[in-house]
Each structure stands twice: as structure tokens, then as C-alpha cells.
Here is the input.
Amino acid sequence: MAKKEVDDRFKKFGTVSFTGISKTNDFVDYLQQGKVMGTRCKSCGLQFFPPRADCYQCLTSDMEWFEIAGAGTLLTYSKLQYGPVGFEGDLPYCIALVDYGNYKVFGRVSSDLAEDQIEIGMDMKTVVNTLPNGQLNYVFQKA
Ligand SMILES: [Zn+2]
Here is the structure.
């Protein structure tokens, strides 16, 4: 059996590396192009974020990429005083869930946005962010 080449593009994402999701590594290539992308099932149209390589409804891998564009609605947010390993230096920061209708995006609120400017129900957009160490992630900003 031929040894598979290690696809480590996800090392570029976030502060802590993701592993074992090589089928969706194009996600990071899109981030480098300034686009936050999810996947859509070509068969039933279900949209996924974070991107999935397979549709759980159709059990197909016939997926396509789509851009998380425009504004969603802030459903909820939470200010973190304790972060997961690798994120301690960023505290405190807010995590949020933004509703785009057919799918929801979970992530961090941009540090540019003060906590008193964050309101449930406000319009938010998802944008690519470059961390001080050159790594990429995405954050929510006021739309
Ligand atoms: Zn499907």
C-alpha cells in the first residue's frame, strides 16, 4: 500500500492545528484568498459550516464549496474568561453563533468590536483574520 502524503494545510488555520480533516483542507486555501467557505451537498442542497466532506442526509460526498458571504444574525454570544489550550493569551474574548438562515456559523467576535457594541439580533459578517503570528482564522464583525 502506498503511503499517503500528509496534507497539513490546516496547520495554517487558527492557533491550534486541526488534524484529520484533510478532505476539507481547501478551506485554508480559500482563507488565504480572503474567503470563508462552507460546503453544500449537490444532491439535497444542505449547507454545512464548518465544512463537511460528506452529507449525513444523503450519505454522499458530492459536495461543493460556497462562500459565507453577506450578513447573518447574531443568535447568542459569550465572553470567555478561560480559553482552550493555545488561546490563553487572547483572553478575554467573545465567541458567538451567527445565523445565516440555512446554516449557522460559530466563531470569535473580532477584537475590534467592544463588548458593549455587541447586541443579540444585530447583523454580523464573517471575515478572514490574520493573527499576529501569521496564522489565519475568521472572526465576526459588525455588518
Ligand atoms: Zn445531501
Observations:
- The longest strand covers residues 71-80.
- The CA atoms of residues 15 and 132 lie 10 Å apart.
- The pocket of zinc ion is lined by residues 41, 43-44, 46, 55, 57-58, 60 (CB under 6 Å).
